[in-house]
Every structure is written in structure tokens, then in C-alpha cells.
Design brief:
Blueprint (H helix, E strand, L loop, with lengths): L9 H4 L18 E5 L5 H11 L5 H23 L14 E6 L6 H16 L3 E6 L9 E7 L6 E7 L17 H5 L1 H9 L8 H15 L2 H15 L5 E4 H4 L3 H11 L2 H19 L13 E2 L2 E9 L7 E8 L4 E5 L5 E4 L7 H8 L5 E4 L1 H12 L2 E4 L1 H18 L6 E7 L10 H20 L12 H16 L8 H16 L2 H24 L11 H12 L1
Parallel strand pairs: 2-3, 2-13, 3-6, 13-14
Antiparallel strand pairs: 1-14, 4-5, 7-8, 8-9, 8-12, 9-10, 10-11
Helix pairs in contact: 3-10, 6-7, 7-8, 10-12, 11-14, 13-14, 15-18, 16-17
Length: about 550
């Protein structure tokens, strides 16, 4: 058991600058991708990581082989429940991983799954996608865009696959309205038909209806349906839920290493988060993650706890008792357990034995990827959000485990709906700038529009001539009051003579504002992948992967 007197001088000993953190940004244009480093470097990165992982502490070194064998075994068992698996060349010797919540995410996220398959094939590795089902499920509906072809205006409507709106982890989110779920594809197809005639939701939901009959949970059904569709497309990845991984003895071993040394982990975690906020100028203590709390002799741990009867996630707390030889672990409400001889080599077996339908111990995000990158895999593929936050995870890992962290890849993509070229947001914004400049010129340079003026020409020429005289003879500073009043009066007269042109430009500015909103909605990169045409997505992905 670690000494509870923990120093917090880690920050002073670190030479960390903002340049160390990469500012990953989502690609903005259709067909653009972020792949950093490039796919061509994937195999060399994986081999470099395998070599670097040889410097891990012995406690993690000894854990890697049994944990990876369990991962492969569990992934095969889980994936075979709903699709065929070709086990040729599958091995735990080289593993590349990615992960995401089981949602109807946007095409930029789905691109990562295609890249995972490609990286595994390039590097002769086994690909495993981790379904992060301990995250809280949000809305059970998606926004579907619709185009009024007569007016060109775009709006969106909400299409739900269940009647509730989440609030509990995905692994606990049961589908309550089966008829709503079963009809989801038809309602999405009807809603998006003005833009896409053949949305892939038809193929996807064929698998989703089969999956929901097997498991009944939204996250499980959505993930299995997507993965089954990927199999139809020739992707050779395995999948496993985080909840399955967290139930293994290997994970209990890893978790126990943290729990038995929690005060020091606390210091490493909180100091790293404070440093990250300081370097990035973040004022909120909630970002990128809140610090782990302490309440007397209770330490907050980087895990969640929940059960079937009370499915809302609760923070895990730990305190040391019996002179430091035992720990109490739980949510300090209804779920608190005691582990005796916590500093023995077999203590993890006691933690593993605690797992039950009412005591579900799950890792939080940074610890999830820490375990995946240090123990389960040789290369991990992140999205942009995960890539940013896991740079904080690297700080924590380096401090706590006292070793370098393996390299990761960060990927994302932007795929817009078919027909996005008709909106061209950049052209709309450019025309808005031109119209705004013209409206401003009406106020200050009305003479530039003399051919479009409403006033009689002699009167107009008189104003313009007088303005030129004033501009040719500008008085010194301090003597310009009368000069300024006369210039202002002439500009006002010129502007008033351009009433019809001003009205036309004002109307165009309003039209462009509406068009800008339409373009922003139509060309959003955040639309769900499920209402895109499948061949369109495949071709776009293939182009980016090349």
C-alpha cells in the first residue's frame, strides 16, 4: 500500500510547454480528412510502440499478454454472436484499436472504423473496436435535414428510435418503444427523401431489428447493426463493449494497481489537469476533466459505479482501513464493499469477484484509453476529441507509470450530403461581404452609384462636384467642424437618392442570410451517417484513405 503522504511537486519537475500539445482541428471541406500521422506511417508506428512498451513497469508488462489474449477471446465471442468471423491470421501479438460510443454518429467518426481496418491490414495486425458503453446515452433521436425544392430552403425534423432520452449508460439503456424502433428506417427515409433517395439506414436497420431482438439495449443494437453492415462492406474488424473488458480479471488487476496507490495517482492526475488548464488558458475547473476530489480520508477514483436497479452513474470512492492493509470501495451510498489484504498479489481477484449486476465498475474516459493503449493494444486510433484529451492522459501516464507513452493516431473526416455544391457556403459568405461593402459605400461613397440614383442629374452633379471640392481642400485639424457637417450632409443626400438600390441590396442581404442558414444546415458535417447513400460514403472514404 502506498504511503499516504504524497508530495505535489510533480509540476515543478516537468518541462512541458504548449507546443507539446497538438491543436487537432476538424477538416472543413467535403472529402477532406485528418490523418495524423499518415497511414503510410502506421506499421512503423506500431512497431515503434511495441518496442517502447517494453519499458513499461513490470506490473504492466506481466499484464499485457493475458489481457490481450482475453481481449481477443472476448472480441471473437462477442462478434460471432451476430456475424461471421474469419479467424485466419488473427493473433494477440499485434493489436490496433479504436473506440467510440454506440451512437448514430456523423460520417467523420465512421471514417475511423474504415481506417482501423486499413491500418490493421497494412500492419498485419488484429483490429478491435472498443464500444464505449459506459458513457451516458443522450437523445434517442436524430435531426434529419429536409429540402424544399421549390424555395430552396432547408429545415430539419427530429426522428426518434425510442421514446426516452437517455440519462443512463448505454449498456443500461433499454429500448422501451419497439414499434418506434422498428419503424425508424422508414421514417428517416421519408424525412430525407428530398435530399437522398437511397439512405443507408435501410441496410443498417435490417441488422438493427435483428440486434434488438437479441439484446434489447439501444447501444448494443446500434453498434452491432453498424458492425454487421461493416462486415457486409468487407471490413475485417472485431468489436467488444467496454463493459465486457471491465469484467475481466486483467482489468481488475490494472484497476487494483491504481486503487492501491490512489493518493499518488490523485496527485499525478490533478497536477496534470491543472498544468493542462494553465498551459491552455482554461479557467473552468471542469475542463478538460474535473480534478479528482478528496473528502477526509475518502479519495475519488477515476471509475464509475452503477447497477441494474439504480443505473445512474456514481463516482467511485476509496479509503484505506485496518492500518492500510484493506480498502473500502464504493459510491458511499448503497454500494460499498471492503477488500481485505488489498496489498497482496491476489487482491485483484477480490475486486474481480465484486463485479455483479448491481456492482458494475467501469473506467472513466482517460483511464479507459490508458488501459487500451498501455495494456491492450500496440496502436490506438483516436478521433479529434479523444486525441486532444488523451494528450492529458499521456501526462498522467508518464507521471504515474514513469515511462513514455505509445504514439497514437488521430483521424477524422468531413463528408457533406450529396448536393452540397449547390449551397457553397464560402461563395455565400463572399457575396455577403460584397453586399455589406456596397451598403456601406451607399452611405459614404454614393457618387460611385450615380447611374443608379433616383435624383435629377443636375442636382446629383451639384452634390458630387461640391464633395470633390471639399475633399480637395481639407482644413487643418481643429478646423474641420463645418467641413465635416457639409460632407456628412452631402453623403446623406447622395444616399437618399439611392433608395431603390439600397432596398435591392437590403433584400439581397436578407436573402443571403437565409441562404447562409440553409447552407450551414445542409452542409453540416454533424449529420448522422445513417441517411447518406452508402456508395457515396464508400467512394469518399476510399478517396481519403488513398
Amino acid at each position: 500500500m502506498a504511503d499516504l503522504k504524497v508530495t505535489t511537486s510533480l509540476r515543478r519537475n516537468d518541462d512541458v510547454s504548449k507546443s507539446r500539445f497538438k491543436p487537432y482541428r476538424a477538416p472543413r471541406q467535403h472529402g477532406e480528412s485528418l490523418i495524423e500521422p499518415s497511414l503510410a506511417n502506421a506499421e512503423s508506428m506500431l512497431r515503434d510502440n511495441q518496442q517502447a512498451l517494453g519499458s513499461l513497469p513490470s506490473s504492466l508488462q506481466q499484464l499485457r499478454r493475458p489481457a490481450r489474449e482475453a481481449l481477443l477471446r472476448d472480441s471473437l465471442k462477442y462478434t460471432r454472436a451476430y456475424r461471421d468471423v474469419d479467424t485466419t491470421d488473427l493473433s494477440s501479438d499485434s493489436i490496433v484499436m479504436a473506440g467510440h460510443q454506440p451512437t448514430l454518429f456523423h460520417p467523420g467518426v465512421w471514417f475511423k472504423n474504415f481506417a482501423l481496418d486499413r491500418v490493421a491490414k497494412l500492419s498485419a495486425a488484429t483490429a478491435v473496436n472498443l464500444v464505449v458503453d459506459s458513457d451516458v446515452a443522450h437523445s434517442s433521436a436524430i435531426r434529419v435535414p429536409q429540402l424544399n425544392r421549390s424555395t430552396g430552403q432547408v429545415q430539419s425534423t427530429s426522428v426518434a428510435f425510442d421514446q426516452h432520452s437517455g440519462g443512463v449508460p448505454y449498456e443500461q439503456s433499454l429500448i422501451e418503444h419497439r414499434e418506434l424502433f422498428d419503424s425508424f428506417d422508414a421514417r428517416v427515409r421519408d424525412s430525407v427523401q428530398s435530399i437522398v433517395a437511397d439512405p443507408l439506414v435501410d441496410q443498417l436497420w435490417h441488422h438493427a431489428r435483428e440486434a434488438i431482438r437479441r439484446c434489447g439495449f439501444a447501444g448494443c443494437a446500434l453498434a452491432q447493426a453498424r458492425h454487421a453492415l461493416e462486415h457486409d462492406l468487407g471490413l475485417s474488424t472485431l468489436e467488444v463493449p467496454q463493459s465486457v473488458v471491465c469484467r475481466t480479471e486483467s482489468f481488475a488487476n490494472f484497476a487494483m494497481q491504481v486503487l492501491c496507490d490512489l493518493p499518488r495517482f490523485h496527485a499525478c492526475y490533478n497536477d496534470s489537469a491543472d498544468l493542462y488548464r494553465q498551459i491552455h488558458g482554461i479557467r473552468s475547473n471542469a475542463h478538460p476533466v474535473p480534478n479528482l476530489a478528496r473528502d477526509g480520508d475518502w479519495f475519488e477514483a477515476p471509475f464509475w459505479l452503477y447497477g441494474n436497479r439504480s443505473a445512474k452513474r456514481q463516482a467511485v470512492w476509496v479509503r484505506y482501513c485496518d492500518g492500510g492493509s484493506a480498502i473500502e470501495i464504493g459510491d458511499r451510498q448503497n454500494r460499498t464493499r471492503k477488500i481485505a489484504n488489498a496489498n497482496s498479489e491476489s487482491a485483484y481477484e477480490a475486486l474481480h469477484a465484486l463485479q455483479s449486476p448491481e456492482f458494475k465498475l467501469r473506467s472513466r474516459a482517460l483511464v479507459t484509453t490508458m488501459y487500451a493503449r498501455l495494456v491492450l493494444s500496440d496502436l490506438f486510433l483516436h478521433g479529434i476529441g479523444g486525441g486532444k484529451y488523451d494528450q492529458l492522459g499521456d501526462l498522467i501516464s508518464q507521471r504515474y507509470w514513469d515511462c513514455p507513452t505509445p504514439q497514437m493516431m488521430v483521424l477524422s473526416a468531413t463528408v457533406m450530403l450529396p448536393g452540397h455544391e449547390s449551397f457553397a457556403p464560402q461563395l455565400i459568405q463572399q457575396r455577403q461581404i460584397e453586399v455589406d461593402r456596397q451598403l456601406r459605400d451607399l452611405d459614404f461613397h454614393g457618387e460611385s452609384f450615380r447611374d443608379q440614383a433616383d435624383s435629377p442629374e443636375p442636382e446629383l452633379e451639384q452634390w458630387i462636384t461640391r464633395k470633390r471640392q471639399l475633399l480637395d481642400d481639407i482644413p487643418p485639424h481643429g478646423q474641420r467642424l463645418q467641413w465635416h457637417r457639409e460632407i456628412t450632409a452631402i453623403n446623406r443626400q447622395l444616399g437618399e437618392s439611392l433608395h431603390e438600390l439600397r432596398q435591392q441590396l437590403t433584400q439581397e442581404r436578407s436573402r443571403l442570410s437565409r441562404r447562409e442558414k440553409d447552407a450551414a444546415l445542409f452542409c453540416s458535417r454533424e449529420h448522422s451517417f445513417c441517411f447518406y447513400p452508402l456508395p457515396y460514403l464508400q467512394a469518399t472514404y476510399e478517396g481519403m484513405l488513398r
